[in-house]
Amino acid sequence: MFNKKSPKDMTEAEWREKLPPEQFRILRGKGTERAFTGPYWNTFETGTYSCAGCQSKLFKSDTKFDAGCGWPSFFEAVSPDAVTEHRDTTLGVERTEICCTNCGGHLGHVFPDGPPPTGLRYCMNGTSMTFLPDE
């Protein structure tokens, strides 16, 4: 029987081999794409956004909104356990980093300035995600 390795058990070398360089830089190196340059910041089709590292579902298009910041923004994850929050003080400011719960890949940050009903703005790197349109 084939035993597939869990994304959480993959080494950084295995991730480097699996992902294109820009996705590796962002997902595994906690990088950020420049505003208005990544995929999906201006996409408003109906569908599901998933982690580019492991394909776990993260966000539905009906929670996406135009925050005007240049990154795809959502007010709610597809489920409470889809993403994991971590304290981030790397820029000398306290922020909340958002990672994929399944593989630990860096997705972006969440801020308390979003629209109702949650008041949250999940500001994600489009390069960290893939999009599957509804049929």
From TrEMBL:
InterPro entries: Met_Sox_Rdtase_MsrB (IPR028427), Met_Sox_Rdtase_MsrB_dom (IPR002579), Mss4-like_sf (IPR011057)
An MF annotation (GO) of this entry: peptide-methionine (R)-S-oxide reductase activity
Domain MsrB, chain residue ranges per copy: 12-134
SUPFAM superfamilies recorded: Mss4-like (SSF51316)
Cofactor binding, per record: Binds 1 zinc ion per subunit. The zinc ion is important for the structural integrity of the protein.
Keyword Metal-binding: yes
Protein's GO biological process: protein repair; response to oxidative stress
Catalytic activity: L-methionyl-[protein] + [thioredoxin]-disulfide + H2O = L-methionyl-(R)-S-oxide-[protein] + [thioredoxin]-dithiol
Co-factor requirement: Zn(2+)
The organism's place on the tree of life at top rank: Bacteria
Chain residues that bind Zn(2+): C51, C54, C100, C103
Active-site residues annotated for this sequence: C123
Pfam families recorded: SelR
Protein keywords: Metal-binding, Oxidoreductase, Zinc
Cellular component GO terms held in the UniProt record: cytoplasm
Enzyme Commission number(s): 1.8.4.12
Family recorded in the similarity comment: Belongs to the MsrB Met sulfoxide reductase family.
Listed name of the protein: Peptide methionine sulfoxide reductase MsrB
The organism of origin for this protein: Pseudovibrio axinellae
Gene name for this UniProt entry: msrB
